[in-house]
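Backbone shape codes:
***
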Amino acid sequence: MEGVKLMFVPDWSYLNAETFLMALGQAFFSLSVGIAVMITYASYLSKTEKIGNSAIKVASMNIIISLLAGLVIFPAVFALGYTPDQEPSLVFIILPAVFEQLPLGGLFLTIFFTLLLFATVTSSISMLVIVVAIAIGDKPEKRKKIAWIGGIIIFIVGIPSALSFGILSDVKILDRSIFDFVDFMTNNIGNAYRSSSDFYFCRLLLYKKYFT
């Protein structure tokens, strides 16, 4: 029950500005708001689409899935004697240990990480769409070329983060691995800043369109 208590019983001693920043960054990241994915996708919607209804559905499903994932991972963390302070790398440590305890665990672990790979690729494509949409402007014939160039650059930039679980595991930036540092900067700091900027500029554009 320690994992369930960790999720649902608040420890008010951790309530500070950094906690708010991390929670804000996580919310924006999981909803793909801070990285402008939703804004980019929304530009392809028809004008008859009800944005409010879509926003409620996306946010509700995100909360439900997040709770279910937490109820799977965190009780296993304590049951297997690990600590829940390993942040994003937790899934690569705890879940293999969980599947190891199950019959045919190796098979299910392979299936899980295969599905995780597809989820990662599709998420990467959604983020690549932002780069492509900005770069092509009003020249859709450049989409394929820009997609390849953007994808290759992103792949190269992501190599150090991937290697931080292996040969670069000893490299630390502000006491964090490369992966954890990049995650913290983009998820907690970058998302909060970008989301605030998006809100400001969207509000400014709407004001100019409807009130001037």
Q: What stands out?
A: The mean pLDDT is 78. Residues 2-211 form one domain. Helices lie at 2-8, 17-30, 37-42, 51-79, 90-100, 105-136, 143-163, 178-211. Residues 21 and 50 are 30 Å apart (CA to CA).
